[in-house]
Write a structure and sequence with these properties.
Radius of gyration: 17 Å
Order of helices and strands: HH
Strand content: under 5%
Mean pLDDT: 77
Shape: flat
Distance between the termini: 28 Å
Number of strands: 0
Structural class: little secondary structure
Helix content: 10-25%
Low-confidence stretches: none
């Protein structure tokens, strides 16, 4: 299943004996080009090692993990859809 992580979703509890493993893949275009507030939010993702987890930062692939030196923060959630959607032709 592929979904946007901002989508509110849920599932029923796993009451059976079998595990329900899953992988979560997140995509963000051009990490360094993202606004600071977006990077501060995405860096808080629970799947990423914390800043105090020095063991995870010492492995060979640690340079591939996103990082943000500023204060980490969540973005406000807006559950109200705009009256209309527009596409920016400059993009």
């Amino acid at each position: 299943m592929l979904l946007d992580y901002r989508l509110l979703h849920g599932t029923h509890p796993n009451s059976g004996p079998e595990r329900r493993d899953s992988l979560l893949f997140s995509f963000t275009p051009g990490w360094r080009g993202l606004p600071a507030d977006v990077r501060a939010h995405l860096r808080r993702h629970p799947a990423l090692p914390s800043r105090s987890d020095s063991g995870a930062r010492s492995v060979a692939w640690a340079s591939l993990l996103p990082d943000f030196e500023g204060e980490l923060a969540d973005l406000p959630v807006n559950r109200r859809a705009p009256a209309s959607f527009a596409i920016d032709s400059r993009a």
